[in-house]
Design a protein that fits this description.
Blueprint (H helix, E strand, L loop, with lengths): L5 E10 L2 E11 L4 E5 L6 H8 L7 E6 L8 H4 L3 E4 L11 H10 L7 H7 L15 H13 L5 E5 L7 H16 L3 E6 L2 H7 L2 E6 L2 E6 L1 H5 L7 E5 L6 H6 L6 E6 L2 E5 L4 H14 L4 E6 L3 H9 L6
The protein binds adenosine-5'-triphosphate.
Subcellular location: Cell membrane
Organism: Amycolatopsis samaneae
Main location: membrane
Length: about 300
């Protein structure tokens, strides 16, 4: 049986007095997409850079495709693709030249022209790196990570700063990689990215795993697993609305004008909420019955917003 794509046990990394990674455990199966999620400074990049062999851990064990990145870098490099945070290249190099250069180092590269096209960069192939937009630089960096047909790819905030269209291209590409059996470990602040792409999500805070599992498992509550949300004018009398609901239900204004009914949601509860709103002359907009979001799970666990 082949080793997991990534297996981390008790990882610790300190920078002087700062403990960036503080006993982190993680296991990622081959052919899966794992999202490392957490606020700024949680230790995501440090963890990924240790997996990539760019940093050495202070304690713990890291295995990437069954190998030790600190010792077996030469064996791992042809099998692993890396997209660092912020990318980077010689400012004058043209996009197409850069990708062809990276391709020339690989034994069996993808076709650079095809990859530029897939990532919406065909028209920018003659553009010097420094003149590409931030989102284009990111996509070129992703292309460089993928050109050598890696078995495993590390993507550090792959869609940071991209517009929704470019983000969608990257998401489609990650989905296609997964379908081809490539393992993908990505870091992100974006809930939607993790929920859309990942088979498993590992939520990290202060260098530790606070929760891990499939996006579905992490967001499902016990019982009916649903919540009711709606938007309306600010400062509705939530205590009064609560009294219109069966005992045990709580209504909160989670942010100005956004209301959350906590408790198992059934058709009677939906009806009671809308009737109460009608009595008050309030139109409940964007009324939704659905699962908790990963954002809410994170907030509950840490008391902090994910996007710090
Ligand atoms: N080279 C360094 N020297 C000193 N401290 C560092 C260094 N790199 C990271 N740190 C600190 O280690 C902690 C973890 O940083 P890291 O970049 O791994 O977090 P992150 O989760 O990737 O954050 P972000 O989402 O902002 O990229 C932070 O407190 C950071 O300030």
């Amino acid at each position: 049986m082949s080793a997991p794509a990534v297996e981390i046990t008790g990882l610790v990394k300190r920078y002087g007095p700062t403990t960036a990674v503080d006993g982190l455990d993680l296991r990622m199966e081959r052919g899966s997409v794992l999202a490392l999620l957490g606020p700024n400074g949680a230790g995501k990049t440090t963890t990924v850079e240790i997996c990539e062999g760019f940093l050495n851990p202070d304690a713990g064990s890291v295995r990437v495709l069954g190998l030790d990145p600190a010792r077996d870098g030469a064996a791992l490099r042809p099998r692993v693709g890396v997209m660092p945070q912020g990318g980077g290249a010689y400012p004058g190099v043209r996009a197409g030249e850069m990708l062809r250069l990276v391709a020339s180092c690989a034994a069996n590269p993808l076709d650079p022209a095809w990859l530029l096209d897939v990532l919406g960069l065909a028209s920018a192939r003659r553009t010097p790196f420094k003149r590409l937009s931030g989102g284009q630089q990111q996509r070129l960096s992703l292309a460089c990570a993928l050109i050598g047909r890696p078995e495993l790819v590390f993507l550090d905030e792959p869609t940071a700063g991209m517009d929704p269209q470019a983000r969608r291209l990257v998401w489609d590409l990650v989905t296609a990689l997964r379908a081809d059996g490539v393992s993908v470990l990505l870091t992100t602040h974006l809930m939607e990215e993790a929920e859309t792409l990942a088979d498993s999500v590992v939520i990290v805070d202060h260098g530790k795993v606070v929760l891990a599992g499939s996006p579905q498992a992490l967001t499902v509550e016990s019982g009916d697993a649903a919540q009711l949300r709606f938007k309306a004018r600010t400062r509705l009398d939530t205590a009064l609305l609560s009294t219109a609901l069966p005992e045990g239900y709580v209504v909160r204004e989670s942010s100005p004008g956004a209301y959350l009914v906590e408790g198992a949601v059934d058709p009677q509860v939906v009806s009671a909420v809308t009737s109460w709103c009608a009595q008050q002359g309030v139109l409940p907009e964007e009324l939704q019955v659905g699962r908790r979001t990963l954002e809410e799970v994170f907030l509950e666990l840490t008391g902090r917003e994910l996007r710090a």
